[in-house]
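Field: sequence (string)
Field: structure_tokens (string)

Example rows 1 and 2, in order.
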Amino acid sequence: MTRPRPPISPALAGAVDLSGLKQRAQQPSSGGASAPAGGVEITEANFEAEVLVRSSQVPVVVLLWSPRSDVCVQLAEVLAGLAAADNGKWSLATVNVDVVPRVAQMFGIEAVPTVVALAAGQPLASFQGPQPPDQLRRWVDSLLSATAGKLSGSSDSEPEQVDPALTQAREHLDSGDFVSAAAAYQAILDADPNHAEAKGALRQITFLERATAHRPDAVAVADAAPADIDAAFAAADVQILNQDVVAAFDRLIALVRTTSGDERTKVRTRLIELFDLFDPADPDVITGRRNLANALY
């Protein structure tokens, strides 16, 4: 067993998983590999709730995996079986490194599969590579023993109940029904103005509805008319949708430098909206905000 890695930043509250939502928007009913059965699929939006907060109740075992690896899939199946057998004593969370690379980066992994155990928001132990089922059983038992009586949950507690309204909102989002999802999340936010997942989901939905409506050659159109603000906005949306985040930020920051008055305010406002789609601790966002400040002042 390797030594635990450094503590993981809790800065993902309200952040988004644009790559996952892009797949929902563009690839409905995809037949590709899905998250391993029996685990909670982690995104940037639910990382805080399902990993950091949940680990204050019961140990959370995070599997960082890729569906392209048979070893990963086999390990996922064994862990899912152990989690089911232990009936809520610990939680299995899965991170598909191909879909949410920013979450994977927070763990500082070097290879998949990697497994990290957390309690009270802090990593306790980790290992890389495949493990025999009996060794995994002993590893989990050791984890449960080390955390016994130290967390708010207990081995006899019932599994955490999810708000039915939140479940319905997630189902709408998973099915790609953005209109119903937006309405459901807005109702949740009306009842709880600080609800992190609802805030993040609404930002995602608003962005995706706008970005997926742009013409596919939006980047080329903007490149041909560098002074056209609306064309630049469309191009930046498409670039973010295609995971070219830095290029999108740079495009609008360059436009800030060449505009003034109301036009500059308009571009700055859109940039800040795009920054807010991501974890504020993301290096690209930090750099983008610094470059924006330099362009303004």
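Row 2 begins here:
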Amino acid sequence: MAMSIKKKVRIGMIGYKFMGKAHSHAYKDLPFFFDMDVEPVLQTIVGRDQNSVRVAAEKLGWLSYETDWRRLLARDDIDVIDIGTPNSSHAEIAIAAVNAGKHVICEKPLAMNASQAKEMWQAAEKAGVIHMICHNYRFVPAMQFAKRLIDEGVLGDIYHFRAQYLQDWIMDPEFPLVWRLRKEMTGSGTLGDLMAHSVDLARFLVGEIKEVTGMMETFIKQRPIGEMAGGLSAVSSGEGLADVDVDDAAAAMMKFENGAMGVLEASRFAKGNRNGNRIEINGSKGSIRWEMDQMNTLQLYLEDDPQGLQGFRSISCTENIHPYGEAYWAAGHPIGYEHTFIHLAHTFLQGISTNSNPSPSFEDGYRNQVVLDTIEESALTGTRMRVTYK
């Protein structure tokens, strides 16, 4: 029996550290778990330091490397630009890439602000390429299943969405002032890094957001200058102290277009929380709870359960009936964080295969950014604000 020849989608990835590792793994493992009409090829990886990017290319399985992302745009052996650089460079790279006819997938937040994000979205739409933002938590099987339950009316009318995203990795005052803590490179701190995920899940599961009231705080005002050193670790450069000009914690109350209320909290100063990403949704017929520590488990409460048997049940979202369940192991055998990126890459490449733009797209990235910008403006002005798309 003749084997079908799959179209190769050749990836050029810019950035090779934390997210670069996650994306590389996703592209490599994707064909192992999912049958597709296209096949990702790890063509070229880009980094500024030649020695470091060469080592990364060898370790992560890339065929070649470059030290300047601009060289990728002129090459006819690159179909996709994958952006995993600091936030300040997203817009420049993405707009240049789509204008060169490349499909683009970009880490979150999409841009430094909403106006940049809109420019990226409009450029991608005009170019007619596939575009996507990397909100990987949408692709947890339990989140996809929660979406199905909500859309099917199992929870009834939605009244509340609450989310926490708590970490503790910068609590030491001696932790260096890395790019994630510098406004000129990141746009915002915890707001754009952590609450961006919660805003995306809010819009994905409940709907568009109408009004917000925000609050932000910076607890450590100065830090030693330094650089990221892999994962969430960092090293000081010995160049003295500099001011921290982004938020260490952010909170927001919100009203959704459908009348639901939302409360979101994000902090990098929550001791004991390595990656405390949690949500709860309450409806007229039931509720759901989910947390990243038990990412394969969805807690579900239904009011129609008999008296005396009511309570939150634990659903292991690993059965064939659950999203992505057929791709992996027997029921009850969990998958991990890295698989969320496999699902995201699968969705992106399916979009390329069918020429149909997937979600979350650059439009979603723009809408998320508008919400984030409005939360920040509300926090600065101390006023409740309408979310307005322009």
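free_text_note (row 2): The radius of gyration is 21 Å.
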